[in-house]
Amino acid sequence: MATNYFEVSRKHTYSLLFALPLLVLYEVGAVMIRGEQQGIRNGADVMLRTLLAAGGLHGTVALTAVLALVSAVLIVRERRRERIPLQGGVFAGMMMESVAYALLFGFVVGGVTNWLLNALLAIQGGAMERLPLLDSLVLSLGAGIYEELVFRVLLVGALLWTFRHAGVSRRASAVWSALIAAFLFSAFHYVGPYAYPLELGSFTFRFLSGLAFSALFIVRGFGIAAWTHALYDVFLVVARGGLS
Q1: How many CA atoms lie within 13 A of 68 on its CB side?
Q2: Nearest CA among 74, 73, 70, 64 for reference residue 26
């Protein structure tokens, strides 16, 4: 049964449906925090919107429609190939996994960064602390859905495909893909109007985080990686005293 769970929960059907509530929560939250800032959004979200706008598609409806269409096609194609029953227990297990991984990553990544550089507090100088609590929480949800989509599904997926077709072994492909994606993921946080100040400690922290998320995506799939990332960021916001 355990083997079946780990196999089934990686399927597109479960992974994409599991990530759907995260997308809804983020979009609803983005509407709620819209104000003088004209709607603050996650950077990866903005990147995808910019790419779609270049192709003539603009706004939340267009982006959501594209994501929904691609997800629906993947799910329908998968369910035509094999029978995949939908079970609430699988979704519950995926959520428990995500919570456990988020807590584990917080301790492990933070501990390793502190051990390497004795600079864990450097992560507190970033832009999220300049934002109200609700804004920070919403952006955390956006990071889970959109940063995983860009840096894991698209980037890691493309790197894996490239390395494998270049004749690189499966294990080496996974390692190099995770390392490259983690570096770009960390660098991404220092670009744009809400960029963090570039510091060795914070860059290392995010590089290790990206490495952990890339490994999780490769092993457990998009849905669990997205929720783990979102919860991980939410826990960081709370740990920095956002609720006081």
Answers
A1: 9
A2: 64
